Amino acid sequence: MTEPQRPKPPSTAELPWVLEALLFVAEEPQTAGALAAAAGVSEGTVRRALGRLTDDYEARGLRVMEDGQRFQLVTAPAYASYVDQLLGHGPGQRLSRAALEVLTIVAYRQPCSRADIEAVRGVNSDRLVAMLESRSLLEEAGTSEGIGRAKLYRTTMRFLEHFGIRSPSELPPLPELVPIAMADPL
């Protein structure tokens, strides 16, 4: 029995549409390496073609989302309410201020541990991290090299989709910290 022949690599003009098809059928976000292997081209070529696909989607109902390592095809945030209507989803549960704090810390410091989160917040965050993991907004990103080998967390593709951004690089810059002026002694 002979193995099926591998298709020839697509032309530069056709590659964005091949990547679109691959991302459309993929159940999980895909790395540039996996997409390159499937298409028979280099990772750099895939990244350039994904850039063209991203630009093409600007005026359409889809977006290519990237978390820095993986890519996924998602609905444009502007059309989420229509998708919810079709699928029968209601508006999602709102996130508490504390949950948003945890997400913000992880988004800007990822990967980071619970201890890193708690050092910034000043309070125990175990419950919030577990809740955000259960809602697929945070995921484990490995373990630290330090004592205790703490779990490290990062944001997920669902986080990007929830906040309507394509990549962590689209997060707004953090404001500069202004030192609190010492009160003059009486």
In short:
This protein is an alpha+beta fold.
What does this structure look like?
The protein is built from 8 helices and 5 strands, in the order H-E-H-H-E-E-H-H-H-H-E-E-H. The chain has 186 residues and is α+β, with helices and mostly antiparallel strands. A hairpin with a 3-residue loop joins strand 2 and strand 3 (70-75).
Count of individual helical segments: 8
Taking the alpha carbons of the first and last residues, their distance comes to 92 Å
For the largest beta-sheet, the strand count, sense and barrel status come to:
3 strands, antiparallel
Shape: globular
Query: What is the helical fraction, as a range of percent?
Result: 40-55%
CATH superfamily caption of the largest domain: Winged helix-like DNA-binding domain superfamily/Winged helix DNA-binding domain
The CATH architecture name of the largest domain reads Orthogonal Bundle
Per DSSP E runs of 2 or more residues, the count of β-strands stands at 5
* Tally of distinct domains: 2
Rounded average pLDDT = 85
CATH topology of the largest domain: Arc Repressor Mutant, subunit A
Proportion of residues in extended strands: 5-15%
